[in-house]
Every structure is written in structure tokens, then in C-alpha cells.
Amino acid sequence: MSADKSFNVSVHVRSAAEFEPFAALAARLQRFGEVSMNVSQLSGKTLEDVPEGGSSWHEYTACLPVLNKKFFPHPKEAPFLNMAYIRKNVALLRACVRVLRKHKLKASFNTHDPFFMPEAFFTRNPHLRGARLDHPRRSRKEEFGICRDCSEGQEMLAWNMAQLIKEMPELTTLFWLTNDAGAGICWNDYLYPGPNGPDACRHLNTGQRVANIINGFNRGAGRVLETVILHANFTRAERDLFPHNIDPAHMYSLGLDDRLVSVGPVIDNPIRGIFDPVAMVAALEKAQASKVRKIMIGLGTNYSRNHELPETAEKVIEIIESFFDAPCAGTIGRLSFLRGLCVRWVGEKQADALLEALIALNEAYKYKQATMPRFTGNYVGVSMRHITRPLVALPEKLTPEEEAYFLPQVFNPNLQEARMDYLDWHGGKLRAGAADEETPDPRVNEVSVACGRFNGVADVLEKLDGKGDAAIFRGMAISIRMYSSILRSIGNFYAMQIVRQRNAARFAAGPQVPSKVASMTGDQDLLLIHEYMRDELDNTARLLDLIENGGKQRMVLAVRPGDVEDTFMLGANIVEQLHKKTTIMRRHWLDASAYLAPPHK
Q: Model-level pTM?
């Protein structure tokens, strides 16, 4: 591997003890190049960032690292922030830096800027009020960030950065996110409420605004930072302005820059413990290109709420090590490399079966992504609570007590929409497959195909004999089956909502006495409703069985100190919630029968 390439490893932990094994894994890559590791860990959720009564958009932000607000606030900022919480974050950062030094690793830091500040700060400092940056369709409260185009805002940012550099002069990479999840640049086209900000900086173009912030970071660091990796929403026209204001040699755009390659496990909250070696090797092959400078290894879960299983992370590092020890290229080369790994993991007799299963896993993910890209565990299963909420035909008939365990967590600022629309996807509409209101049975057929593929892989993995690596793959089979269960739930809720929509007028009209003529089917939609409910009942029973037989530790749940159940994290009492789900479903099994005619044979 070329000496000018480096690695960056990111993980989300709550303690140095959690951080240590990941740092030890990262250190194994040092023989291939410089390795940096993310140390912007939070001691817990920033509870004060979520307004009273909850707010879905604020939940995005509550576990995200922010240099000025959650680590090193300027003296003008500190009086308005929870300094006891900030001191815990700094103590954790220092502990993680000590671990890095023990393993001779470099440091990276993630920050969101300009991040929203309390209104009291702007009441005291009105001249620093920058853009409104919340998402109006996802938030229950408007928020504003600090303007970084004014000289005082830039100097404050430089001060924040200087404090960070004092703590860890070995910083090599700064990840900077803006225009999403809590941060926003003045007058940017992608600001969710629309372009806005103070009139004083309205004349600047986006390239100048980006340069103002990067220059603030550099002044605080006392040097030009080696790498600033920008993760943000900008139009193409705005991005075209960057090279005219910033040296592109030191700034990268995450997801859009062919100098970066990402590799790691399959991350989709709440499921941990799945890795796709076929996809990893394909990414590593791209990493051999001379233009690639950084290899990004993500071992944290969505929105910084947890981390991958250590055993899975170890397999990810092993694959990377093996690849750079003996690089391969082309289809035959990749297959030969992968088969060699399979022999190492499960022996010659089982190697071909494992290889076929891993290829099938890769194809299953490709199929799912091509046909149902928005059907995800994080954004639907968890944030819309399809995993734990009851699937019923008339959710308006649930009592407040029956709703209490799931409805407050559903991603929706409108409680009635959260209750009534199973397909309200963070303010938009969930769409997938060919299903529509005109289809007699609106089930998404692609769900059944994908679940069949995933479960077929699990069938093979769970039969592998032996300890060690074979046991890891048997565990992965549990994770894959749980992931398949989530897809199946999403499919059932999807179909139910379409049937609900096309019968909305009949449900609104009130209970009806059906016609007294014979009918083998009655109202076909009633049969479909009961089919979906039965499938979800069986699916939930199967998920419970998986969770209670090794699956619980493979899920992201609110079990660590500092974790709480919220929009993006399931509760520690997942088993109790799933039992509530099935109990409520059985209690409301016949709700639709008062409106739609059952069979009369």
C-alpha cells in the first residue's frame, strides 16, 4: 500500500473502557500507514437540547459532537450551557486521548458548526445570531446558530479550536458537518427553512462562508489542518465555488470525493453484528487507486448512539489487514481472496458453503437497496416504531394507555399524523416497490423476495460447525434474521396503510351492518387486514424468540449509562414492548369488522 494513504477509524462509546478494544484494533493497521481515530465521544445524550414535549428533529442532534457547545465553549457561550455535562465530555475526551497515545495513534475530531445555541445566548448577544437552521417539518421549536461570517463569530470559533488543540496536538483530521442535523451556514440554499441569515453577510457567496469557517479552525489550530472532511448539503453550483476560496488539497467532501474510500460493517440501527466481506473487498480494491488518500472505517451506529460489536469490528480489521498483505483485483482475484478467508475462518470442508452464503448476502443487500432504499431499520423500523408499535386497522381506537409506550417516540412533530399515518416518513411519504392504492393486494412483493434471500443466507450460516469464527457467523445469522424481521414489519405496515387509506371514507362513516347475502369472501380488504395482522403477529413472535435466544445483545438498546430510549434508540425493555404489541393487536383484532363485511358462507 502506498505510504501516502492513511486510515481513519470512527466509533461511538461512552467510556475509555469501551474505547480501548477499538483502539487496539485500529493500531493493527499502523503497519500500512498512519491511523487516526475519532475522539469526539459524548458521555451521554445532550438532554437539554430536546425541548419540553419532545421534538423529532432535536433527537437527530442530541448525541452528535459539537466543538463549541459540548466540549470547549467560549467564555461568552459557557454561561448558557450545561457545564457539568461538558466537563464529563472533556474528561472522556482526555481519557480517549490517553488511550490513543498508548497505542501511538493520531486523533480525529467530529464537529457540527454553526450549531444551534440557546435563545438566551442570542438575547445577550443579538449581533451573533446567524441562520435559522432547524427543519420546520420535523421540529417543534425553531433554532438559530452563530454567524461565522462576522469577525467575532470567527474569532470565537478559533478560540474553541485552540482549546481542542491544547488537549490533543496530534489532531490530523477534522470532520465538519453543516447544513443538517443541528448546523447551518447563513444564506445557504440547503437551509431547511429556506436561505436566511443576518443582512450584514448576505452578500457573501457559499465558498467564502465555507472558507470563513475553515480559516477559523486553522487559526485556532495554529496551522493549516492536514485534512478537513466536509459532510454537508450543498448545491452543485455552491460546491463549484469551494476551489476558488479553499485549497482543495486540504478539504474533502464525504460521499462525493474519489480521494476517500469507506469500508466497514453493515450499519443499520438497531441491528449489529453483520458484515459483508464481498462489499468490503470491492471497496478495498478501489482504495488501491493512487488518488485515494484516506480509508474511512466506520464502527459506530446511526447518529452516534452506539458502536458495532467488538467481534464484528475485529473481523472488519482482519479483512483489511489480509487485503493489504496480499491485494487482489478483478472478479477472479476477489473470489480467490474471499475463499482463502473462508478456509481460514471455517475450514476447507465448509469454505465453499460460507463463500456462497457471503456472495448471496451481498446480492441480497444490493437487491434490497435497488428496490426498497428507504426501508431501513433506523429510519422506519426504529424512528417510525414499526418494530414495536401494534399493527391495527384503526389506530385511532387505541387508548392513551395503549399508545403511551411507543407514540411519543415516533418521528413526527404532529401527534395525530404519527398516530394515523404509518407511512409518514419524517414529513414525507414512504414509497417502495410497485404497490399503490389501485393494487388489489398492495403488499410490497420485493419485501418477501428480500426476506427470503436474507433468511436463506442465515440458513447456511447457522449450520456452520465449530467454535471461534464459525460461532461468529452463527451469531451473524441471528442478526440477519432480525434484520429480515424488521423488513417484514415495514412491509406489513406499508400494505395496511394503503388499505386504510382506500377505506378511509367507510371507516369515517361509522359502523355498518353488512348485507345479508351469502359471500365466500365478504369484503376482500377485511381479509387482507387480517392477513397483515396475522403475519405481523407471527413475525413478532419470531423476533421475540430471536431476541430471547442470543439476539438482544446484537441490538442497539438503551442499556448503557447515559442512554435513554428516544426516536433513534429502542428501549431496554424491548421484550416487554413486543409482548405489549401482540397483546394490543389481539385486543383490537376485530375493529375493522364493524365497518367491512366478513365472509358469510
A: 0.96
